[in-house]
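Private note to self, pasted from the team thread so I don't lose it. Backbone tokens:
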């Protein structure tokens, strides 16, 4: 049913949340910003949104620039493990589908991780925050991947976006492509997506199960 697969990276292919959530809150606290159970819960709920949006919601009036830079710097050196079975699943699907990544990561940090994990050749294109102006859920990143495909006759309805965050789902809706939720990261709550209209058949427990689910969609 789908000709092209597009993935988010953090929380979808890589188990990023535990490492980055801890770093995020510790860094915010080091600036003297209030970090308590309520703030932590709010950050967790918004995870995947832009840092500016999270800061505005959790610490109104604070400048997100320093925190954004700290997160970007850390992302270039912090090793993020892939979820179990993700590598084998990606190589299996690469034999049948062109695969791309659309992520809020900067390009250099993403390239390093793809190389370290031995999956660089699984993807035909990378769309990162290094080349887009607007953050998810704005569809700019997905459109940058899809519009060139349409120019050579590919159809948008045959593109599938795979992600883990609500902003990924909203981005897919805005770009008018189908979406599969990978509920493998500890912060993902599938019920929230169900309440927003995502059918159960588009929810998987792990990215390793994606090849099988694709045969059922």
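Design output:
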């Amino acid at each position: 049913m789908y000709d092209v697969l597009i993935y988010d990276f953090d929380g979808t292919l890589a188990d990023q949340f535990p490492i980055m959530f801890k770093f995020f809150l510790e860094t915010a606290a080091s600036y003297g910003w209030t970090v308590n159970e309520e703030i932590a819960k709010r950050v967790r709920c918004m995870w995947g949104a832009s840092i500016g949006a999270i800061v505005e919601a959790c610490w109104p009036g604070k400048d997100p620039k320093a925190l954004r830079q700290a997160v970007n710097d850390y992302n270039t050196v912090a090793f993020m493990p892939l979820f179990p079975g993700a590598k084998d699943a990606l190589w299996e699907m690469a034999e049948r589908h062109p695969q791309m990544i659309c992520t809020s990561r900067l390009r250099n940090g993403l390239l390093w991780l793809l190389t370290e994990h031995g999956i660089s050749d699984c993807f035909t294109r990378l769309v990162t925050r290094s080349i887009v102006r607007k953050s998810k859920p704005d569809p700019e990143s997905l459109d940058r991947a899809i519009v060139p495909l349409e120019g050579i006759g590919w159809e948008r309805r045959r593109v599938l976006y795979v992600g883990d965050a609500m902003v990924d789902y909203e981005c897919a809706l805005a770009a008018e492509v189908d979406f599969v939720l990978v509920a493998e990261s500890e912060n993902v709550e599938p019920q929230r997506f169900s309440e927003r209209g995502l059918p159960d058949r588009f929810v998987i427990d792990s990215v390793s199960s994606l090849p099988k689910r694709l045969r059922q969609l």
